[in-house]
Amino acid sequence: MPKKILIIEDEKDIAELVKHYLEKDNFETLSAFDGEKGLELVKKQNPDVVILDLMLPKIDGIEVCKRIRSDSKVSNVPIIMLTAKGDESDRIIGLELGADDYITKPFSPKELVARVKALLRRIERGGEKQKVYKFKNLTLNLESHEVLLDKNQVKLTSKEFWLLEELLRNKERVLTRDKLLNDVWGYDYYGTTRTIDVHIRRLREKLPGISDHIVTVKQLGYKFKENL
Fold this sequence. Notes:
Elements: E1 4-8, H1 12-24, E2 28-32, H2 35-45, E3 49-53, H3 61-70, E4 79-84, H4 88-97, E5 101-105, H5 109-124, E6 132-135, E7 138-141, E8 146-149, E9 152-153, H6 158-169, E10 175-176, H7 177-185, H8 194-206, E11 214-217, E12 221-224
Parallel strand pairs: 1-2, 1-3, 3-4, 4-5
Antiparallel strand pairs: 6-7, 7-8, 8-9, 10-12, 11-12
């Protein structure tokens, strides 16, 4: 049975483009062009994922996100926010209210579909997944989408955040580059895996004192090692 994706986006050209790419990948889609109609469809249709634009008529995306998360019947619906470049404060508020991921406009429709797949895969891997990971002076909080080092917030990109989550959740397990690309980027990647190496290098730079625990496993990939 195809997964049902609700697109709440007032720009009809963007909504149609996203709809086209999702349906090409065998998803069922629903569309709403304002926040009021979007909320109505969330409650009536109980979609598997909501793609939610922040700038909406009638009820804005932040308020839509807030109302979804406060309604016990639909509070667990995964949400991917669409944000304009420079809207960092809105993005942070949205993540704090419980959005699961975000993507910045302009975006590639293929990337958005990949994010949807990655999010669904994370959910299917287990609702039992813990919400907070702690290691030494590092804390990763899935609900607030925050990473703290010595209680100071570390600014990570969305990809860096989910890459770190993948490493922490699989401590002491070797994760191949192909697996990381598939699980974090949301698609099977054909060609160079250098993108993983670049993101690992950036993670290490942003996490002094923790970086040595992100270990390179020659010719395979990476693992998070607790005891050095």
